[in-house]
Specification:
This protein is an all-alpha fold. It contains five helices and no strands. The longest helix has 32 residues.
Length: 151
């Protein structure tokens, strides 16, 4: 009928759907996994954008900052990979039988990729104004790998 407004149906937001509930451990684990999947997708898109920007601005004053941002994304990806590695450990089954070194390979690989980028910035851009942050992040990444001497 004309003039009649349809009743407003309130749909829950993504935040509402992913909010933890006290006492619902299985549901909370599922929500945490869904959240990490969304984060991983976002990180992948951000990395693709950064790679395009690095191609466009190679050799300019923007390059070291873009490289540092790419390294930060690798560190975030390492955190996400570690979440899934730990999650596989807690679920039991075949995942719990996988040697620890293999489970950590993905997150360690991402941290190593970040370190490589940080070192490139240190070597190729010694006058970069945020070099102190690059040194700090390099040390933090080494510490993450348990390599205290390099940190």
């Amino acid at each position: 009928m004309p003039g009649w407004a349809k009743p407003s149906v309130k749909h829950p937001s993504v935040e509402d759907l992913l909010r933890f509930k006290a006492g619902d451990e299985n549901g909370n684990d599922l929500k945490a996994s869904k959240t990490e999947v969304l984060v991983a997708a976002s990180e992948t898109k951000a990395l693709a954008q950064l790679n395009q920007l690095l191609k466009k601005y190679k050799g300019t004053h923007l390059e070291p900052d873009l490289m540092a941002r790419k390294a930060e994304i690798f560190m975030r990806q390492a955190r996400t990979a570690r979440f899934f590695e730990i999650h596989r450990e807690t679920e039991g089954g075949a995942g719990s039988l996988t040697p620890s070194v293999i489970k950590q390979e993905s997150s360690k690989n991402k941290v190593t990729m970040a370190i490589d980028l940080y070192k490139q910035v240190q070597k190729n851009f010694p006058n970069f104004q945020l070099l102190d942050l690059i040194y700090f992040n390099t040390g933090f990444a080494y510490q993450h790998l348990g390599q205290s001497d390099q940190a």
